[in-house]
């Protein structure tokens, strides 16, 4: 089921879906009306999703639900940084191996650690089949490179998605409260998942993608932000279906 979910979600992401529409138009080229419809649909999607309009209506509603968190952490302190991605780069440090998203999440996690007393850092994420080491392991090494004592880091290297990350946290910490760090667009879904597990999480969003710009400016950054927002909306739909 995990791989089915991943395959379906990737197929309906903007770029793969636009490419499928263009491929479909080539296959049915001898049916000009249908082919023109497919090409027009692909063009319209690319135009809208790469525009500021898409950022305003898709991305900002997600990223503005939780503000930047600068409040101090009292009592027992656990900061959890949700996983993202990394690459196996020869001779690179762990920090250099992290994706831009993972690095943004980790640096925010380290900032959150300083807001409490003797906090524990939790990092998560498996490696899939494309990397030699679990993502959690690389995140832990990167945190150590940035000055975190390795004894203060706990890894969940088998967690494949946010649902499993929340479950691993509950299995390990029970109902311990947590300062949750993830991308701003992902935060609403992450908070819903942790809340659904009965966990008390305080949101610490980072990796903001929405930027104010002219409506008639079309960029790859807007397209990427739109794709991430659509991924979140599909994820919320999947979560709702599973709960029914």
Describe the structure.
The chain is built from ten helices and five strands, in the order ααααβααβαβαβαβα. It has helices at 2-11, 14-27, 32-49, 52-63, 94-97, 100-113, 135-145, 162-173, 187-196, 220-243, and strands at 78-81, 120-124, 153-156, 178-183, 201-206.
SSE order and pairing:
Blueprint: H1 2-11, H2 14-27, H3 32-49, H4 52-63, E1 78-81, H5 94-97, H6 100-113, E2 120-124, H7 135-145, E3 153-156, H8 162-173, E4 178-183, H9 187-196, E5 201-206, H10 220-243
Parallel strand pairs: 1-2, 1-4, 2-3, 4-5
Helix pairs in contact: 2-3, 4-10
Brief digest:
The protein is of the alpha/beta class. The chain has 10 helices and 5 strands, in the order H-H-H-H-E-H-H-E-H-E-H-E-H-E-H. The longest helix has 24 residues, at 220-243.
* Structural classification: alpha/beta
Helices and strands, in order, run as HHHHEHHEHEHEHEH
Q: Which stretches of 5+ consecutive residues score pLDDT under 50?
A: none
Query: What is the beta-strand fraction?
Result: 5-15%
Main pleated sheet: 5 strands, parallel
Strand order of the largest sheet: 3-2-1-4-5
Average pLDDT works out at 90
CA-based shape:
elongated
Provide the gyration radius in Å.
20 Å
Instruction: State the share of residues found in helices, binned by percent.
Output: 40-55%
Compute the number of helices: 10
Instruction: Determine the N-to-C terminus distance.
Output: 17 Å
State the assembly state of the protein chains.
single chain
Total count of strands: 5
């Amino acid at each position: 089921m995990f791989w089915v979910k991943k395959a379906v979600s990737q197929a309906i992401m903007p770029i793969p879906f636009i490419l499928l529409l263009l491929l479909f138009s080539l296959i049915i080229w001898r049916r000009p009306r249908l082919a023109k419809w497919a090409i027009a649909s692909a063009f319209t999607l690319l135009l809208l999703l790469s525009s500021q309009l898409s950022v305003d209506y898709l991305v900002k509603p997600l990223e503005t639900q939780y503000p930047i968190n600068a409040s101090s952490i009292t009592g027992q302190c656990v900061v959890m940084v949700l996983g993202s991605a990394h690459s196996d780069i020869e001779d690179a440090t762990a920090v250099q191996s992290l994706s831009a998203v993972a690095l943004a999440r980790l640096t925010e996690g380290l900032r959150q650690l300083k807001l409490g007393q003797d906090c524990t850092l939790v990092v998560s994420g498996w490696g899939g089949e494309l990397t030699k080491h679990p993502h959690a392991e690389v995140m832990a090494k990167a945190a150590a490179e940035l000055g975190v004592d390795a004894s203060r880091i706990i890894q969940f290297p088998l967690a494949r998605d946010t649902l499993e990350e929340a479950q691993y946290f509950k299995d390990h910490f029970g109902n311990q409260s947590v300062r949750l760090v993830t991308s701003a667009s992902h935060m609403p879904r992450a908070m819903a998942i942790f809340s659904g597990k009965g966990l008390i999480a305080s949101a610490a969003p980072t990796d903001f993608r929405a930027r104010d710009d002219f409506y008639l400016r079309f960029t790859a950054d807007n397209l990427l932000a739109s794709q991430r927002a659509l991924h979140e909306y599909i994820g919320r739909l999947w979560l709702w279906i599973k709960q029914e």
